[in-house]
Amino acid sequence: METQPISHLSAGDAHYRMIHVGDKTPTFREAQAQGSIQMGEKAFYSLTRNELPKGNAMALAEAAGIMAAKKTSDLLPLCHPLALDQVKIQCIPDETRHAVLVSCTASAYAKTGVEMEALIGVTHALLCLYDLIKGIDPVLTLSQIKLVYKRGGRSGHWVAPDAQKKPGFSGIRAAVVTISDRVFRQEMENISGPLLANSLGQLGATVVRQEQVPDEQTAIAQILTALANEVELIITTGGTGLSPRDVTPETINRLCDRIIPGIGERLRSLGAQNTAMACLSRSVGGLIGKTLVIALPGSQRAVIEGLSILEKLVPHALHIARGGNHE
């Protein structure tokens, strides 16, 4: 069996090194990790009633986890120092198991992922709980420390196979349309379309159609009109640039009953943090009836970054379009 080289090893010796990320562009990164601590009944109720001798254990554990996540590169020698935008720790008591489930969500615009920051945050929050509880119950078990999900970078969106978190796009029927003359003529491989469909599936959506059409307003209009009768969400990829053949935005603007300017504005605003060329994108979003249509550029990076921006917007937009309230 052929062995793969370890990327953190320097060539020709066993000295380790940090991976060079200087030529990478920062993108939105987010990760969530979780773990649990199990204890006896007496300790559990002392904890949840805030009766431990050392005080409010869960509040202190949350603070400890946040502090540790910010120190990840000091604790793990090959991790890059990251300017974290957010770290959120949650301690959730589970009375049926006399346990506390701890989760840590970390996010940043960075050149590398924040998985280790999330895992360090969870681990140190659990260790803090251990320290505060051990005086009244030495029989404590730390378990199930794991990565729940991560998003951003080349790997896109990844969710642990056993994750219990309900994906945000659950219940949404979706379609993906690749708009490209060369892809339609099979002169170029369709990369962004399948990537988009796979990413939507990982977010919980049911992708019922994947289509390819040329950069022609009539063809685009026909497929979007047909799909609007079948699905709640249509995301297109390609045809949003400045080429004379890029007519996706014009077609969507003509078809939609209502344009949602903020979608395109948000995509360009956050995209500009990664590339100055984002201002040249003409991404657009709108409603055909109650079907949400969003146009993304045709690059892989635009798809990955676009979905990370849209993940929280789309479910709420569809909820409102169906007549739901703003809560």
Give keywords.
six-stranded mixed β-sheet, Molybdenum Cofactor Biosythetic Enzyme, Chain A, 11 strands, 327 residues, single chain
Task: Lay out the secondary structure.
Layout: E1 27-38, H1 41-48, H2 57-69, H3 72-75, E2 86-94, E3 99-110, H4 115-133, E4 141-151, E5 157-159, E6 173-179, H5 181-184, H6 192-202, E7 206-213, H7 217-228, E8 233-237, H8 248-255, E9 258-259, H9 261-271, E10 284-288, E11 291-296, H10 300-310, H11 313-321
Parallel strand pairs: 6-7, 6-8, 8-11
Antiparallel strand pairs: 1-3, 1-4, 2-3, 4-5, 9-10, 10-11
Helix pairs in contact: 2-4, 6-10, 7-8, 9-10
Q: How would you describe this structure to a colleague?
A:
The protein is α/β, with parallel strands linked by helices and 327 residues long. It is elongated and about 75 Å long. The protein has helices at residues 41-48, 57-69, 72-75, 115-133, 181-184, 192-202, 217-228, 248-255, 261-271, 300-310, 313-321, and strands spanning 27-38, 86-94, 99-110, 141-151, 157-159, 173-179, 206-213, 233-237, 258-259, 284-288, 291-296. It folds into two domains: 27-154, 2-Layer Sandwich (Alpha-Beta Plaits); 173-321, MoaB/Mog-like domain (Molybdenum Cofactor Biosythetic Enzyme, Chain A). The termini are far apart. Helix content is 34%, strand content 24%. α2 (57-69) runs antiparallel to α4 and α6 runs parallel beside α10 (300-310). It has eleven helices and eleven strands. A hairpin with a 5-residue loop joins β4 and β5. Strands 7-6-8-11-10-9 form a six-stranded mixed beta sheet, with helices on both faces. The mean pLDDT is 89.
